[in-house]
Amino acid sequence: MAAPVKSKVDGAAGAVQNLTIGKAINLALRSAMEADDKVIILGEDVGKLGGVFRITDGLQKDFGEQRVLDTPLAESGIIGTAVGLAVRGFRPVCEIQFEGFIFPGFDQIVSQVAKLHYRTQGRVKVPIVIRVPFGGGIGAVEHHSESPESLFAHVAGLKVVSCSNAVDAYWMTRQAIESDDPVLLFEPKRLYHSGNLRTEVDTTATPDPLHVSRVVRPGDAATLVAYGPSVKVCLDAATAAQEEGTSLEVIDLRTLSPLDLDPVFESVRRTGRLIAVSEAPSESSLTSEIAMRVQQECFYSLEAPVLRVTGFDTPYPPAKLEEDYLPDLDRVLHTVDRSLAW
Q: Are residues 146 and 155 in contact, defined by beta-carbon separation less than 8 angstroms?
């Protein structure tokens, strides 16, 4: 993993706070807005309501309607407005209410946001952050529980990251806002307010760089790699496996584009086994890319084929079926057993 570097962002008042993921993102947005009056938040219901998940709660009250804008229900308009703001020197932060609503803005994202810097030969920067609550597990209706991150990771010109804990939620948000490149931040919505994931967040600490993966639990029998909501599933699986004497290494990918697979390669060369876990469908996905890259770089170290635990290649199901669709502890442990038995 690359050595940590000092971020140029400054922490908000109250250096160490015990926060959920949702509160960490709120604090990061607040501290970024305090540090730079060019930071503007826009999205559906982000103002008076504070967002459907209350991530922007209190920001319009404290910073005013000129900096926290309630927009029409028009994602293409939200992204297009952000492009104009970025060109004029602002740092817009867009909230997509649910990941399934991002597609009306897809053309703006891949045709304008991702291309302007390249198209202008570097003369125009596009410091836009697009926050995307994603993933299932909340019992929602259609278009509220999807995992479309692979679609955006495929697009040159976009940076794509995903947090799995409160510390990363805070720092990834701050680092994304200060980046001169467009960043999509995929946030695990079902973990926003999980009390079990409350973490001490030191806003004066030196954060890891935005685009590095991290080993979050060491082990030697097999490697689990995941991102976003699937990291918690893998950590729970590793805890359960340890009770039976199996030591699993867990890697939080964190960055989806650019991919930082060096920690994964190093781990697999020691363990000889890899299981990639994601809620997204398996075909043409990030787990596909990880599997290909690992077999290419670690072929002679592998003791078993790279295996995957993912969502299924179907549209996201009705809420009553989502527990059968989402990767869980049992599916991960079953796949670990398959790998170890090879």
A: no
SS3 130: strand
pTM above 0.90, yes or no: yes
Q: Is the pLDDT of residue 251 over 70?
A: yes
Would you call 144 a catalytic residue per the annotation? yes
Segment 301-341, tens digit of pLDDT: 999 999 999 999 999 999 999 999 999 999 999 999 999 99
**Distance set, CA 221 to CA 191, 233, 234, 246, 252 (Å):** 28, 18, 14, 6, 17
Amino acid making up residue 315: P
Catalytic residue among 143, 144, 193, 211: 144
Nearest 5°: the CA angle 309, 194, 226 is 25
Q: Dihedral through CA 105, CA 111, CA 114, CA 116, nearest 10?
A: -120
**How far is Cα 70 from Cα 51, in angstroms, rounded to an integer?**
9
Is pLDDT above 50 for 117?
A: yes
CA 198 → CA 83, 206, 225, 293, 329, distances in Å? 35, 20, 22, 34, 21
- Greatest pairwise CA separation for the chain in angstroms: 60
